[in-house]
Amino acid sequence: MGSSDKKKKEKKKDFQKPKLKKVLPIMSDAYGPVRGRLLKLLQALPADEIRPHVEKIILYIRGAMTNISQEIKDDGLNYMEWLLDVAGDNLVSSAGCWVKPLKDFMSVLGWTIRVAPTVPGKSGWTSAPRTTFGAKKYGQSFPRQMSVLAKFLEYGFKPEMDRPWSSNDLFDSISRVPRTPDPFGYLGLFKPPRDEDGEVYRNREDRQDIFQKRFGEAVELGVEMAKKEGGAAGRAASVLDQVLRNGLGPYERGSRLDDDDEHLWNGYII
Question: What does the DSSP 8-state code read for residue 19?
Fold first, then answer.
């Protein structure tokens, strides 16, 4: 009887837990109070229940951030900030959770991104429409977008904890089962290789490399333009600039991502 009561309590407790796959689409709901209540609900959930699902959650957050409605875009930033608070380290090191959100930030900020020219003689620059400058109703959206981007980059550029090396590390790496998820996924032996946007960037150096290659120039130009505006935008741009200085510092672009060599090993398994 005691065992039966225990199972009923566990079943009732599990039933009362919100199902993420059912509530996540509400992030783009048309009604503001609904989105606000969803945020409060998510903030009440334990972080341990959120971390395993960051790849799924970020899909809905990105959808809200790039929604046609400015109010939903603003709430998308609130969701992004919440996810960074509870699982920031897990987020930036998960598949498709580094480059794709950065592309969304560039889109909503209206900052130019350099792309490979498809027609000879073209400049290869593209620009998303800037919807935040000069708008009275949404004047605070632009500084807010830069602030959340700064927080996202702060997690991505955070230095890893240094662990002193011991003589047992060599044998542990050979004889023990790896503790990281999909430790040999980079070999691409059992699944098709990921594209650059959906790749896993597990360490700081990899994230720095791809950021500098794809977004560094656009972000630097955007920050300088925002600083000249002054006010809230200028202050947010200064914070973002400081995050870039701290996160990149004396960083030098890795040779494996140089334009002349990045396709050198195409077709090989390294």
Answer: -
User: Which of the pair, 230 or 165, is modelled with greater confidence?
Assistant: 230
What's the rounded Cα separation, in Å, for the pair 152 and 83? 10
Q: Is the CB of residue 150 less than 8 Å from the CB of residue 169?
A: no
Q: What angle do CA 59, 113, 101 make, to 5 degrees?
A: 15
Model's pTM, two decimal places? 0.74
Q: How far is 266 from 270, CA to CA, in rounded Å? A: 10
Amino acid at the residue 174 = I
Residues 100-156: tens digit of each pLDDT = 999 999 999 999 765 555 455 544 544 444 444 434 444 789 999 999 999 999 999
Structure tokens at 7: 């199972």
- Map out the domains of the chain as residue ranges: 1-94, 95-159+195-253
SS3 track for 143-188: HHHHHHHHHHHHHHCCCCCCCCCCCCHHHHHHHCCCCCCCCCHHHC
Query: Using CB atoms within 10 A of its CB, is residue 228 exposed (0-12), middle (13-18) or buried (19+)?
Result: exposed
Residues 6+ apart with CB under 8 A from 258: none
| Tokens standing for residue 243 | 């995050």
DSSP 8-state class, residue 27: G
The structure tokens listed for 59 are: 């899909």
More confident residue, 202 or 260: 202
**Cα-to-chain-centroid distance, residue 112:** 19
